[in-house]
Amino acid sequence: MKKGNIIYEDSFGYANKELQVKNTLNTKFNLASVSKQFTAVAIMQLIQDEKLKLDQTIDTFFPKIPKSNLITIKMLLNHSSGLQIDFDELYLKYADIDSTNVFKTIEEKTLLFPPGESIAYSNIGYFLLAKIVEKISGLEFEDFLKKKNL
User: Nearest-CA neighbor of 44 among 77, 83, 93?
Assistant: First the structure.
């Protein structure tokens, strides 16, 4: 970029080396834990805009999740919700991992511990936080980030 204009763009490497699928400018990458910071900032934006509260429970968004009436936004943010899903399990269980399959798996699981009583790193908590951003904003998560310049 130079003065807001793209002066060079290209892609390199393989999206799938085994199948010889090259990266393109449109290849999407799973950013995993790198995206958690953006998710947390998006949630804090909604809190700042008074559309969400840290101590708000998630049952209004996800009533079928076990103990959702005890799990707060803050617990999802700080990994103390007790929710846990092994994504490797999802890959083995489903050919296509979509939101429906993820929610179905969450709803079938028991909590690792009572909400707020311990800490266990939880990718699924951030998945739910992104879904909350979508529900409140009415936008896809990526579009919300773009709109807020995040």
Answer: 77
Q: Give the pTM.
A: 0.79
- Cβ contact 115:128 at 8 Å: no
Question: Do the Cβ atoms of 69 and 112 come closer than 8 Å?
Answer: no
Residue range 76-127, pLDDT digits in tens:
999 999 998 877 777 777 766 778 878 888 888 889 999 999 999 988 999 9
- List the one residue out of 50, 43, 30 whose CA is nearest residue 78: 43
Name residue 59's amino acid: D
Catalytic residue among 11, 33, 99, 122: 33
Instruction: Please say whether the beta carbons of 67 and 82 come within 8 A.
Output: yes
Q: Please give the helix or strand (H or E) that residue 15 lies within, else none.
A: strand 14-16
Residue 33 bears catalytic tag: yes
